[in-house]
């Protein structure tokens, strides 16, 4: 009787411990379905996780227009993840398709909308600009700050990295000379595969699970299932990795928010694909 009770206790303790470990990797599931009568939806995601960074999941339906505002105190990034739409300027229209990144930069009088009978899902990331950021951005190429940045993920430059296998496709979707202290990219592969364990205490990092992503994320002793249309926060300074089982897909966006300019040296580990 004692032995059975001991085994039961260990099982319960192990379950509780695993649950507590999973909670060390903050994660939030995006609501991909809204009421048919609802034309707009906006919800903060992982609120107050990273100082100065605000992340929202927003949805537009019924061809509702969304006007883009520009405020020099902030920089805003749009990641269109599902649905089709149109982005319009005074003299040009861009086709929004799933997995496209958009920065308005200093361009004004912009708006976007979903196509007729479609629903547009996007992640809106707003980053507070410090006085140092406002000084640094003056050294960036003029095209990077004065023109729209609009690219499909698959059109972005590929890179390799020692922690990834040769079968992994990695792309830089936002180089670090558009917004101070920020870079973004994608990781895509089919299992069995993994991103090896690594640490980067010089930056905060979010992951966004894209279509069909089915992976496991590990950070120190914690682990958590990371499916499509979720956002998680890698604990600062943790030794973290990602794995995917056979025939499953790994496909996510990494978002790096560097604590200072010096930390961007980390990006030198990314080598352009030959």
What keyword list fits this structure?
six-stranded antiparallel beta sheet; globular; 12% helix; 22 strands; mainly beta; 274 residues; 3 helices; Jelly Rolls
Verbal overview:
With 274 residues, this protein is mainly β. The protein has a single domain (29-272), classed as Jelly Rolls, CATH 2.60.120.10. 12% of the residues lie in helices and 45% in strands. The protein has helices at 2-22, 131-136, 142-146, and strands spanning 27-29, 40-44, 53-60, 66-68, 74-82, 85-88, 93-96, 100-103, 110-114, 120-128, 149-152, 157-160, 169-174, 182-190, 193-198, 203-209, 214-219, 222-227, 230-234, 240-244, 249-258, 271-272. The strands form four sheets. The chain has an eight-stranded antiparallel sheet with strand order 1-19-16-21-14-13-12-22, with no helix packed on it. A six-stranded antiparallel sheet has the order 2-3-10-5-8-11, with no helix packed on it. It has a four-stranded antiparallel sheet with strand order 4-9-6-7, with no helix packed on it. The longest helix is centred in the first third of the chain and has 21 residues, at 2-22. The model is unreliable at 1-23 (pLDDT under 50).
């Amino acid at each position: 009787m004692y032995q059975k009770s001991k085994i039961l206790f260990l099982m319960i303790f192990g379950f509780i411990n695993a649950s507590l470990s999973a909670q060390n990797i903050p994660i939030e599931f995006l609501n991909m379905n809204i009421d048919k009568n609802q034309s707009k939806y906006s919800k903060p995601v992982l609120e107050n996780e990273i100082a100065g960074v605000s992340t929202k999941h927003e949805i537009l339906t019924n061809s509702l227009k969304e006007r883009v505002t520009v405020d020099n105190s902030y920089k805003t990034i749009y990641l269109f993840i599902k649905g089709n739409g149109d982005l319009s300027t005074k003299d040009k229209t861009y086709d929004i398709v799933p997995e496209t990144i958009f920065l308005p930069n200093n361009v004004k009088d912009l708006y976007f909308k979903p196509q007729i009978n479609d629903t547009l899902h996007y992640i809106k990331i707003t980053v507070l600009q410090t006085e140092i950021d406002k000084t640094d951005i003056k050294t960036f190429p003029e095209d990077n700050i004065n023109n729209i940045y609009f690219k499909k993920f698959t059109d972005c430059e590929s890179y390799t990295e020692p922690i990834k296998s040769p079968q992994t496709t990695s792309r830089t979707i936002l180089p670090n000379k558009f917004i101070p202290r920020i870079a973004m990219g994608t990781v895509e592969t089919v299992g069995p595969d993994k991103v090896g364990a690594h640490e980067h205490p010089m930056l905060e990092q979010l992951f966004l699970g894209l279509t069909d992503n089915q992976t496991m994320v590990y950070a120190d002793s914690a682990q958590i299932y990371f499916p499509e249309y979720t956002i998680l926060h890698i604990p600062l300074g943790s030794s973290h990795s990602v794995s995917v089982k056979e025939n499953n897909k790994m496909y996510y966006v990494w978002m790096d928010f560097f604590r200072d300019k010096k930390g961007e040296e980390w990006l030198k580990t990314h080598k352009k694909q030959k």
